[in-house]
Design goal:
The protein is α/β, with parallel strands linked by helices. Helix content is 41%, strand content 17%. The strands form three sheets. Strands 3-2-1-4-5-6-10 form a seven-stranded parallel beta sheet, sandwiched between helices. Helix 2 packs parallel to helix 4 and helix 8 (254-268) crosses helix 10. The termini are far apart. The mean pLDDT is 95.
C-alpha cells in the first residue's frame, strides 16, 4: 500500500512513518516543516526505497494536487495539525488556517484524486484527531465514540471542526473515510514544549518543573508507538465511515505523572537532591480541562487492539531515550517559544 502521511516529520506522524516503512508499505511523507517538525525524526528510514518526502503546506491546495498527481496514493493518513493548546490560546489564527482550512484542502485534493482514479473501493482517508474534542470529564466516566463534542480551547475547537468536515465529505461526496480520536501521546521524539519532555529536560537542567494549578488534572497516556500500531490497523481493517477511540488505559494526574518521571530520573541519572524538589505549582492555564479518559471498547472488540505499554514502562523508555539523545533535543531548544510559558490568556 502507498500511504500519504501528512505531518510525517512531527511527533506522532514520524512514528507512523517509521512503522509503516517497517511493515513494508510505501510512504510519502508530506510536511511543511514548521517549528515542531524535525526530519531527524525519520532519519532511520529516509534512505529507504519505499520512502519519499514532499515539503508541502496543507494550506496550499495547488501543491497538494501536484503531490496527489505525482504519487497517486492508495490511502491518506492525515496527522498534520497545529496541536499545542497553549499556543492556540496565544495565536488561534494558525490553528484555524491549518486544522480547518488545511483539512478542507486535503479533503478536496484527495476527493479529486479519488474521482480521477474512478473511485477505487480500497481508498481510505484516515483522519487522526484527539479526545480533546469531547471536552472535559468529571471524576468518573469515559469518552466513547458517541460522546457529544464539547471543545473548550481554540485547538480542540479547530480539531472538532476538522472532524466534522471529514464526516461531511463522507456523507455528501461518498469519500471513503475512517476517523480516530486518541488520548495524550508520549514517547521518543516528543517535541520539547510538551509536558513530559519539559519535565525531563527541566529536571536535567536543574530548573523548576512547572505544574499547572494543583496538578490534579488527569490524562490517559498513550505510548506513541502503540498509537502508530493502532492507526495503521484502523487504516487497513477499520469499518468504512466509522470512528475509533484510541486510549492507553493509563490514567494519571499531572502531579502523579511528574512524580513518576522524577523517580525514574533519580534512578537513571541521580542528582545531589531528588528531582521532585524542583516541582513548582504555577498559575493554571485558561480553560484547563479537568480530565480526559478513553473507553477503548470498540477498537478492542472490533479490531482486537489493546495498548501494549503501561505508563510506567513507557515513561522508563522515554526518559532513557532523552538521556541517550541529547543532540536531538538540544537542537530544538532554540526554536520559537520552546522553554517559554505560553497560553496565559
Amino acid at each position: 500500500m502507498k500511504i500519504l502521511v501528512t505531518g510525517g516529520a512531527g511527533f506522532i506522524g514520524s512514528a507512523v512513518v517509521r512503522q509503516a516503512i517497517g511493515d513494508g508499505h510505501q510512504v510519502v511523507n508530506l510536511d511543511a516543516l514548521t517549528y515542531a517538525a524535525c526530519l531527524d525524526n525519520v532519519a532511520s528510514v529516509a534512505d529507504h526505497e519505499n520512502y519519499a518526502f514532499e515539503q508541502v503546506d496543507i494550506r496550499d491546495r495547488a501543491a497538494l494536487d501536484t503531490v496527489f498527481a505525482k504519487h497517486a496514493p492508495d490511502a491518506v493518513m492525515h496527522l498534520a495539525a497545529e496541536s499545542h493548546v497553549d499556543r492556540s490560546i496565544d495565536g488561534p489564527g494558525d490553528f484555524i488556517e491549518t486544522n480547518i482550512t488545511g483539512t478542507f484542502n486535503l479533503l478536496e485534493a484527495a476527493r479529486k484524486s479519488w474521482l480521477e482514479a474512478d473511485r477505487p473501493e480500497a481508498f481510505r482517508f484516515h483522519h487522526i484527531s484527539t479526545d480533546e474534542v469531547f471536552g472535559s470529564l468529571g471524576k468518573t466516566g469515559q469518552f466513547t465514540e458517541d460522546t457529544s463534542y464539547d471543545p473548550r480551547s481554540p485547538y480542540s475547537a479547530s480539531k472538532a471542526a476538522s472532524d466534522h468536515l471529514v464526516r461531511a465529505w463522507a456523507e455528501t461526496y461518498g469519500l471513503p473515510v475512517v476517523l480516530t480520536n486518541c488520548s495524550n501521546n508520549y514517547g521518543p521524539f516528543h517535541f520539547p514544549e510538551k509536558l513530559i519532555p519539559v519535565v525531563i529536560l527541566n529536571a536535567l537542567a536543574g530548573k523548576e518543573i512547572p505544574i499547572y494549578g494543583d496538578g490534579s488534572n488527569v490524562r490517559d497516556w498513550l505510548y506513541v508507538e502503540d498509537h502508530a500500531d493502532a492507526l495503521l490497523l484502523v487504516l487497513q481493517k477499520g469499518a468504512l465511515n466509522r470512528s475509533y477511540n484510541i486510549g492507553g488505559e493509563n490514567e494519571r494526574s499531572n502531579l502523579e505523572l511528574v512524580q513518576t518521571i522524577c523517580a525514574i530520573l533519580d534512578r537513571l541519572k541521580p542528582a545531589s537532591t531528588p528531582y521532585a524538589d524542583l516541582i513548582t505549582f504555577v498559575t493554571d492555564r485558561p480553560g484547563h480541562d479537568a480530565r480526559y479518559a478513553i473507553d477503548p471498547t470498540r477498537i478492542a472488540t472490533e479490531l482486537g487492539w489493546r495498548p501494549s505499554v503501561t505508563v510506567e514502562e513507557g515513561l522508563e523508555k522515554t526518559v532513557q531515550w532523552y538521556l541517550d539523545n541529547e543532540d536531538w533535543w538540544r537542537a530544538l531548544q532554540n526554536r520559537d517559544g520552546v522553554g517559554q510559558r505560553l497560553g496565559t490568556g
